[in-house]
Amino acid sequence: MKATDFQVLHSVTEYTRYYGLPDPAHPLLTLINLAEITAQTLPAPIVAQLYTVALKRGLKGTVYYGRQTYDFHGGLLTFLAPARSYRPMRASTFRK
What we know:
This protein is mainly β. Among the domains are: 1-34, no CATH class; 51-81, no CATH class. Helix content is 7%, strand content 26%. The chain contains 1 helix and 7 strands. The strands form 3 sheets. The protein has a 3-stranded mixed beta sheet with strand order 1-2-7, covered by helices on one side. Helix 1 links the parallel strand 1 (7-9) and strand 2. The protein is globular, with a radius of gyration of 14 Å. It starts with 6 loop residues before the first strand and ends in a 10-residue tail after the last strand. The mean pLDDT is 75.
């Protein structure tokens, strides 16, 4: 994958706009409920230049970490440092 295939996000505001949400009330912190996002297709993987904490509950399927697969059906709490790339999950990945 080329470096141009990534969407680089430099601020919390860019992060919320990426998901088609309004600007955050606070410039350094926001809460995003991915189940409320209606976009059917998400753009390229993200490289966020900020710390990201995500809580995912009700996952369907398996989560890949490195070369291993893990079963996180009960939920998953992730912490990502700046300059880490990841691909956002679609809402259809979650159990209703």
